[in-house]
Amino acid sequence: MIHENNLVTVSRFDGNAYESSQAAERTLNAAILRAEIARSYEEFLEIFEKFYDDDIEVSSEDSPETIRGKARVRPFLLNFLVPLHVMTEVSGLSISVQQTEVPRDTANETHSGWKIDFTGVGGRRCTLKWNAIRRWKASRVVYEHLYGHEQIGGPLTEADLNSDWGRSEAGFQLPS
Question: Shortest CA distance to 7 belongs to which of 29, 22, 36, 40?
Fold first, then answer.
């Protein structure tokens, strides 16, 4: 879980819109990078609740539909986070996240590059990369667009996960 003393309250940022959005972006990205999916996917949900506006709009170059509102975005986020949490906590998948700031000069708009490395128990890797544009209103993201998706390496398979996790000698069994 996120401890409130670990996050700067972005509503405290003063100054012009450009400086405020840049500071809020750095704070949001730092919170994302500090959270650990192996420990809890709930940390990411708390970040989403804290930094994203109730009327958030999310779009992607891979989908013609813009998703509007936290209630509609949350299931997409959970569909991404929950399997990652299970695979890291139970199956030994290792995940490394990196973020790169992409300089822009537009007030209330920020750009960043993201990269996630997935490493299976045998060392096989798959990397996902994408970019995000965020538009800010005060300390909240009101629009996020994901683009430039790239996958390096093939998808990981069952062979890349810890095969002992469902055996009885590991202390628990899969249902029959």
Answer: 29
How far from 121 is each of 44, 92, 159, CA to CA, in Å?
24, 6, 8
Q: How many CB atoms lie within 10 A of CB 73?
A: 17
pTM for this entry: 0.80
Block means of pLDDT (10 residues each) for the chain, 176 residues, are 41 62 92 93 96 97 95 95 89 92 84 95 94 94 97 89 57 44
* Pairing verdict, β 63-68 and 94-102: unpaired
Distance from C-alpha of 155 to C-alpha of 127, rounded to nearest angstrom: 9
For residue 44, count CB atoms less than 10 angstroms from its CB and return exposed for 0-12, middle for 13-18, buried for 19 or more. buried
Look up residue 68 and give its two tokens: 């509007």
Cα–Cα distance list, 117 to 13, 35, 42, 108 (Å): 33, 15, 21, 30
Place of tokens 């405020």: 20
Nearest of 40, 41, 124 to residue 79 by alpha carbon: 41
End-to-end C-alpha distance for the chain, whole angstroms: 34
